[in-house]
Amino acid sequence: MSPNTVLMITCGKKALGWRTLTACTTRLNGLMKAAEMLIENYWLVPMSQNGFGEVESMPSFIGVDIGTTGSKVLLIDDGGKIIDREVVEYSLHTPKPGWSEQNPEDWWMAVKKAIKCIVAKARIDSSCIEGIGLTGQMHGLVMLDEELEVIRPAILWNDQRTAAEAEFLNKEFGKKIIEITGSIVHTGFTAPKILWVRNNEPEKLRKMKKFMLPKDYVGFKLTGNISTDVNDASGTSLFDVRKRKWSDELISELDLSWEIFPEVLESPDIRGELSSEIAKELGLRPGLPVVAGAGDQGAAGVGAGAVSEGVVSVNIGTSGVVFTGSNEYRFDPEGRLHAFCHASPSKWHLMGVMLSAGGSLRWFRDSLGHLEKAAASLINEDPYDLLVKEADNVPLGSEGLIFLPYLSGERTPHADPYARGVFFGLSLKHGKGHLVRAILEGVAFGLMNSLELMINVGIEPRELRILGGGSRSLLWRRIVADVFGLKVYLLEVDEGSSYGAAILAAVGAGLYSGVEKAVDSVVKTRDPINPDEKAHETYRRYYELYNRLYQALKPGFKELANLP
Asked: Which pTM does this prediction carry?
């Protein structure tokens, strides 16, 4: 702490300012001890840059993201600049193998804690916060009874108990369910969860007055109103995506009660106002508008600026997501893409998901990168950087080595839980750098599968925006540009879903006339990479072989799964 450090202790809405600290060690120690004594009940906050004790007055907006491992709260100003962020973690429960549950109250407690922290730390007047936007994990089932109390733990998107119910829905409705809902039914979606409860816990289904999705439970706690949005509802397998409303046909055929379904809003619509009681607890003004929001991927699409048709975002995290907006309802007839309502009214989006994108490189680091991990700790570098440096010395195509990134099976385009990872073409000339580069290229090929499906239904991509942990690698960005044949940009702000939720809050509060206007004003790109035409043509040949390899190996994958 420098002699010019300024401290401020806040308690509720009151603030006590101290003069600029001098270099006097005795006084500094005394102040720090006082701060330590108060740390349980007070927040230590940096002062405004505008002067001692001043608090900036600027319109600002909160984005809340209900994640699987924790809830994130982001605060942005009216120009999209990040003011502050806070993450509060919670537990994931697996009562049986393949099951995944959480207590909705844990989400609510985490959000309250994070918002309180943001309000206490932010260098702005909290009365200038003008809206709250919501996003979060999709597909989860939250069940409320007549008293609007939670009946059972929420069943999450990654829960696998509903295999039989998902298979029933796909067989029962066939191609019709793809046309109506924009996708085949996956085990993680909401409809098979409701059927599982009916088949296995019928007394709980009889008690259910309303069901909702994870972020909507937090919206209910903030406002007292029960509603969802068209984007999140699209992931339930009960929503007519073309018509942007619950499906009369599916609900009738499944003999579900209409009263359990929440009202559906467009993503920037206001779902309700912050109640006086909650506003007082959080340190916010009552009546603050809370917008409907969107599912995590829909909000991430807004945060990346992938709203206008032709702008594609690629998120390389543990999994990989290819996402683009569409001006009309387009769907893949085989259901290999998710075709959902976009968070921008009157628009839709297409999305493909691969299961082991950055996760493939993480597997290699943890399993075969021990030397790099040890060296990185000694020189204070990231082991990923050391691995990628080795790959950067390897020619395009990894000298005839191809990697199939199916370490956890695959979703798009194969929907094959039996698929497994493969290094094809290994020879004595291949070393660790070849293996790493083959992983980077194989992931890019897997992502290209999704873009190709989008092109097949009429999307004409013109630029690509890359985000997630994999975007930090210049080599990986170059490979994606060359495989896709598109100019690739980084984002000035790479905050994902919470950033999109905050932008939606700004639209709902009236700062912008629409989502596209907001995105054009707020979302900025940087560091473009142009594709190399010759490299793109070479990669096309590798890509064609990559696709043939899966088809050739597909029967063997399933046979392998049945071996002892």
From this structure: 0.86
Is the Cβ–Cβ distance between 237 and 192 less than 8 Å? Answer: yes
296 φ/ψ angles, rounded to the nearest 5 degrees = -60, -40
Q: Which of 459, 456, 530 is nearest to 311 (CA)?
A: 459
Whether the ω angle into residue 95 lies within 30 degrees of 0, i.e. cis, is no
Which residue carries 């029962």 as its tokens?
Answer: 172
Query: Is the CA virtual torsion 155, 109, 143, 231 positive or negative?
Result: negative
Q: Which of 273, 265, 176 is nearest to 227 (CA)?
A: 265
| DSSP-assigned letter for residue 416 | B
Quick one: which of 108, 92, 84, 160 has its CA closest to 499?
84
d(CA 438, CA 442) in angstroms, rounded, equals 6
In the residue annotation, 296 being an active-site residue is answered as: yes
Within a 13 Å sphere around the CA of 498, how many CA atoms are in the beta-carbon half?
A: 26
CA–chain centroid gap for 154, Å, is 19
Among residues 51, 116, 53, which one has the least CA distance to residue 84? 116
* pLDDT tens by residue, 341-385: 999 999 999 999 999 999 999 999 999 999 999 999 999 999 999
* Residue 409, SS3 per DSSP: strand
Q: What gap in Å lies between CA 495 and CA 384, rounded to an integer?
A: 21
Choice among 296, 385, 520, 527 that is catalytic = 296
Q: Tell me the per-residue pLDDT of 33-77, one tens digit each, with 9 for 90 and over.
A: 444 433 333 333 333 334 334 556 789 999 999 999 999 999 999
> Is beta strand 525-529 parallel, antiparallel or unpaired with respect to 488-491?
antiparallel
Q: Are the CB atoms for 399 and 537 separated by under 8 Å? A: no
The helix or strand, by DSSP H or E, that contains position 271, with its residue range, turns out to be strand 270-273
Rounded to the nearest 10 degrees, the angle between the axes of helix 214-223 and helix 104-121 is 60
Distances in Å between the alpha carbon of 200 and those of 94, 165, 194, 434? 17, 11, 10, 50
* Eight-class DSSP state of 87: E
Cα atoms found within 13 Å of the Cα of residue 299, Cβ hemisphere only: 34
As a whole number of Å, the CA-based R_g of the chain is 25
| 386/154 Cα distance (integer angstroms) | 41
The region, left, alpha or beta by phi > 0 then psi within -120 to 50, assigned to residue 463 is beta
Query: Could you give the CA distance from residue 79 to residue 310 in angstroms, rounded to a whole number?
Result: 24
Q: Are strands 142-144 and 210-212 parallel, antiparallel or unpaired?
A: antiparallel
Please give the Cα distance from 247 to 239 (Å, whole number). 5
Give the integer Cα–Cα distance in Å for 177 and 481.
Answer: 35
Decide: helix, strand or coil at residue 9. strand
d(CA 162, CA 4): 59
Distances (CA, A) of 287 to 129, 276, 290: 11, 7, 9
Tokens of 125: 């007047």
**Taking CA 7 as the corner, what is the angle to CA 72 and CA 33, rounded to the nearest 5 degrees?**
100
Question: CA 420 to CA 404: how far, in whole Å?
Answer: 8
Give me 510's structure tokens.
């009236």
**Each residue's pLDDT tens digit, 512-527:** 999 999 999 999 999 9
Based on the number of CB atoms within 10 Å of its own CB, is 184 exposed (0-12), middle (13-18) or buried (19 or more)? buried
Give the HSE-up count for residue 463: Cα atoms under 13 Å, Cβ half-sphere.
17
Mean pLDDT over residues 446-463, rounded?
Answer: 97
Count, residues in the chain: 564
